[in-house]
Design goal:
There is one protein chain. The protein has 303 residues and is an all-alpha fold. The protein has one domain. The chain is built from 13 helices and no strands. Helix 5 runs parallel beside helix 13, helix 6 runs parallel beside helix 13 and helix 7 runs antiparallel to helix 13. Keywords: Membrane, Transmembrane, Transmembrane helix. It is found in: Membrane.
Length: 303
Amino acid sequence: MTAFALDDPFDRGSGLPKPGSVLRAAADSIPPSGLVLLAIFSVQLGAGFAKELFAALPPSAVVFLRIGAGALIMGALARPKLKGMSWRDLGVGVAFGVTLAVMNLVFYEAIARLPLGIAVAIEFLGPLGVAVAASRRRLDLLWIGLAAAGVALLAPWGQSASISWVGIGLAMAAGACWAGYILLSASVGRRFPGTTGLSFAMIVSAVVVAPVGITSGGGDLLQPQLLLIGLGVGLLSSVIPYSLELNALRRMPKHVFGILMSLEPAMAALVGVVVLGEVLHTQQWAAIICIVAASLGTTRATK
């Protein structure tokens, strides 16, 4: 949000503060750690509302609503300027967008089969793997072991017999896409100014998802209430958290940001309980704690 505020804080016609300056002041009044936690909550709340839509629309149609809404908003706030960019730059941007599309498609299919907290915990293995690969320390064996223990606790046996193997596979695929997203985002950040790289990627994602989303959703996608919820999901899952994270990163060390982001699986589990009524077993909570601990350890080791 603050990335798009204007320099002049007052509207010349009314003399009142502009919305952008009000949002900037509000964001600056919140500690950066609070902004990260709000961003995490926003993302998971958006996922919770998206899962509620599965009763009316298939997951792929909900993905289309979410990415389409996000692309429209981000495109308006940070219009991509492609003039003068090389084919290589555009290719990286397109790859980023395709990765974003596939990541959301497989993740939404995963949460259709798994509790939200479990799906996010498994998906988190993607960024965890990237962090471990960048560290190369012996201590990483401990974090790898903790993450493996978490996955073992979530596997469909014992107390977790109701967990879907297909859902676990889809969540792992989402994690692999998340790892690719992290690696590509660094390249996109070097090639595209400001937030235009993400804006371009979201537009590409919307184009990629559109055929499957429109085909599966059909005429139901035109229902006003579903469109409104889809807009809300797009705001909660993309625009709001990205703006909050951007503001937080400007005011805190990256390793602290990474440590706070490690709490995302736990937040997802809490949102699953409160919003979706997905009560987890003790074994499943233990699995999520193992993965969160592995992520926290890896993040501290790579600071």
